Amino acid sequence: MVTVNLGMLHYILDHVYGAFVHRTKITPPFFSRGWGGTKLELLERLISQLFPEVEGQNWPPSLIQPIWKTVWETQNACLREGVFRTPCDDQLLSALPPESHNARVAFLVPKSVPPRKMACVVHLAGTGDHTFERRLRLGGPLLKQNIATMVLESPFYGQRRPMLQRGAKLLCVSDLLLLGRATIEEARSLLYWLDSEAGFGKMGVCGLSMGGVHAAMVGSLHPTPVATLPFLSPHSAVVAFCEGILKHATAWEALREDLAAKEAAMTLEEVRERMRNVLSLTDVTRFPIPKNPNAIIFVAATDDGYIPKHSVLELQKAWPGSEVRWVTGGHVSSFLLHNDEFRKAIVDGLNRLEWKEPSL
């Protein structure tokens, strides 16, 4: 009986937090400026092209050349920050706000062993994660196990946030697709850099919530096996914005007015259906199974007010060989209390990969 009440408490905590953050007028809702017009049509087309025609066929990542500066260095570790031009093609670049054209990363590396005997994990941002600090805290204790951490600042976040955007509240639906598409491109290029330039022996990609959706997509589309580690993540953005708590943070009326101006008057339910159709492009179950399914570990919460259980199980079903681990809690409490479980999943996922053969 106590367990049930505790589970309900975690679920209620998610809703109380969600009501405070998303239903009060402290910040504007998501998508207050509508759908994004022609940008949305462009993104729908570009994301449809992500799905390879032939199983196992992936386009090669672009090579990037980050410019590094050292933030601090000790006997055992070094933290550097890097800047690189986003590797997105001209069409994507023209849709991205100018503030997002340059990508920023933090790179925390142990100094005790050469890269070929180390692993590195790229950490992608969850909704509202504008800085490097939280993800560096997650990765920091892994230095002792010779696991480096690379943290990517998302487009539309932190120093890459457009001037008119407040907090994480993206202005248009097209911005959500654009953020995802650019993050996939940048993360694949970082993995390629870690492999070909830095010479790491193993690599992985992880993320919390929205970052976990992007991590799953990157793991799916990367041409070589990487550990794929989505934490507290749905199988699609449809779940977050149409089923979970974020549906209360969405400017449905503004979206309806935007459609009415261009097409025809719609009921709110029809607007929600349109949103489901658009966001179905983010459905990870449509993506190819990653190269090493055994190195996919999902960590999900038992009483998550943002991500229903069925969403996690759909991912596991779509990717046979993957593993789901459950932590007791809600979205917010697990985010705060279960970092050790996330770290264990990172270590275990990397252990299921083969070390890269040294090049002659």
Descriptive notes:
There is one protein chain. By secondary structure, this protein is of the alpha/beta class. Helix content is 39%, strand content 16%. It contains 12 helices and 9 strands. The chain has helices at residues 2-23, 38-48, 90-95, 133-139, 173-196, 210-221, 237-243, 252-262, 268-279, 309-318, 331-337, 339-351; strands at 67-73, 77-85, 102-110, 119-124, 147-152, 202-208, 227-231, 297-301, 323-327. Helix 10 links the parallel strand 8 and strand 9. The protein is globular and about 65 Å long. Mean pLDDT is 88; it is low at 14-24.
Q: Sheet bearing the most strands, described? A: 7 strands, mixed
Q: What would you call the shape?
A: globular
The total of beta strands comes to: 9
Order of helices and strands: HHEEHEEHEHEHEHHHEHEHH
How are the strands of the biggest sheet laid out side by side? 1-2-3-5-4-6-7
Average pLDDT number: 88
Question: Based on helices, strands and strand pairing, what is the structural class?
Answer: alpha/beta
What count of helical segments does DSSP give?
12
- pLDDT below 50 for ≥5 consecutive residues: which ranges? 14-24
Please estimate the helix content: 25-40%
Percent in strands: 15-25%
Question: What is the distance, rounded to the nearest whole angstrom, between the alpha carbons of the first and last residues?
Answer: 61 Å
C-alpha-based Rg, rounded: 20 Å
Protein name: Protein ABHD18
InterPro entries: AB_hydrolase_fold, ABHD18
Pfam families: ABHD18
Describe this structure in a few short sentences:
By secondary structure, this protein is α/β, with parallel strands linked by helices. The chain is 39% helix and 16% strand. It holds the Pfam family ABHD18.
